[in-house]
Hints:
Layout: E1 4-5, H1 8-28, E2 34-38, H2 44-60, E3 63-67, H3 75-87, E4 93-96, H4 106-112, H5 124-132, H6 140-151, E5 160-164, H7 171-180, E6 184-188, H8 195-200, E7 204-207, E8 225-228, E9 232-234, H9 237-243, H10 248-257, E10 260-262, E11 275-276, H11 283-302
Parallel strand pairs: 1-11, 2-3, 2-4, 5-6, 5-7, 7-8, 8-11
Antiparallel strand pairs: 9-10
The structure holds NADPH dihydro-nicotinamide-adenine-dinucleotide phosphate (NDP).
NADPH dihydro-nicotinamide-adenine-dinucleotide phosphate binds next to α11.
Amino acid sequence: xxxxxxxxxxxxxxxxTELQPEIAELGAxxxxxxxxxxxxxxxxxxxxxxxSKIAAxxxxxxxxxxxxxxxxxxxxxxxxxxxxxxxxxxxxxxxxQLPLPRQVDARxxxxxxxxxxxxxxFHPVSLxxxxxxxxxxxxxTPSGVMEILRRNSIAIEGVPAVLLGRSDIVGKxxxxxxxxxxxxxxxxxxxxRDLPQIARRADLVIAAMGRPAMVMPDWIRTGxxxxxxxxxxxxxxxxxxxxxxxxxQRLEQFRQKGSALVGDVHPDVVEIAGAITPVxxxxxxxxxxxxxxxxxxxxxxxxxxAAGATAASPASGH
Length: 318
Ligand code: NDP
């Protein structure tokens, strides 16, 4: 058996096509949604992510701005910048790329973002709305996963779902979205005993641990859906040999480049799962698509208009 590959790029394109009329409608009313990205320092991965987000805005005709404070920025300076962006009427969404340098109090910075502009869904107000199943701005990666499931008609209601990871930005909001869609959710973390045995009970496994290819085929029930959120860069040849043993082409690419991007799920899981997201090209493109969707949603909500139908409502399962 070989799993159906859940193509994130195709779903992203579908979402962009659906957003076009909404953008045109706002444009006709003189509104061009705008996203302000704040990128501190020179973390190469963060630079790639922010560049992709700005490129997505340009592709869709949204406005975007990049603010790039120096690595040495203080919490007070960050709070001042966020305050200015909160006051600007042309800014609908504020994105603070994580991680922030150690001297910056990331919590205070994220809490300073106006909840109406919280397109990443990290503000306590957004999280509170999500807990209560009220409409609002939901974290992009988990809502992107819901789009993948929904658009591939993968059943959620009544399904045993296991989450590997409990971070504030992926695991916890993901658990809440699945719960609101009436899955029976188990949340695992680094202190969980016998992860493989728990994962094997699930029809839906979502891996978000940041551990390269840790989820092995014997963790997965035959035919289960596996969503791989992990994005890990590996550079150890022994690790690459373990992960790409059956994929000579990818091993060769690794040898040429000296590194590779892999998920949290071992590629051999494709032989067991019923459906699986690839890395790259699975969840990643959806994260950016949902950021675009949230920016448009914020632009409408801030002006008292109802949001469009693209973004999954947290309460959709009730
Ligand atoms: P965090 O490091 O914040 O959280 C990782 C979670 O996994 C924690 O809850 C941790 O448990 C758990 N964990 C770590 N190791 C183990 C283990 N050995 N066994 C069981 N649980 C474990 O990561 P994020 O949630 O931010 O990201 C997770 C992954 O997803 C990363 O690879 C990241 O790059 C990727 N990512 C991808 C995105 C995308 O767009 N596709 C967007 C965001 C993230 P504990 O709480 O006990 O420490």
